[in-house]
Amino acid sequence: MLHIYRTTVRTRRTLGEQLARRMLQPATGMPLSTLQSPWPIRHCSANNVRTFDTMLKARRAEARRSVLVQVSSERSYNELYRYCSQFGEIASAHHYRVDGDSGVDGDCHYILLEYTSQDEADAAMQSGVFSTERPGVRARSIFMWFRTGPKPRLVSPTNDAVRPLALVDGARPIDEQELNGLLASAETIDDQVKVLHRVTKLNDLGKRLRFLAVRQLESSLQGMFPQAVAHPFGSSVNGYGRMGCDLDVILDLDCRSGEPPDRNSRLVYHTKATNPNERTQVQRQLESIGDVLQLFLPGVTSVRRILKARVPIVKYHHEHLDLEIDLTMNNKAGVYMSELLYLFGELDHRVRPLTFVVRRWAQAVGLTNQAPGYWITNFSLTMLVMYFLQQLSAPILPSINKLIQLSAAIKEPSELVPPLGRLGDGEDAEWVCSFLKNPSIYECFRSTNQSTLEELLHQFFTFYAQFDFNQRAISLNIAGTILKPDHCPMYIVNPLETVLNVSKNVNLEETELFRIQVRNALWLLETHGKEVVQADSEQSEWGLVSLFGPRKQMERITPQMFFTKRMLNVKDIFDEVPSDDSTGRQPPSYRNPAVKSQIASIHRSTKAAIGKLQSGVNGANGSRSTAVEGTNVKLKHGGNTKRR
Question: Is the pTM here over 0.85, yes or no?
Answer without folding.
Answer: no
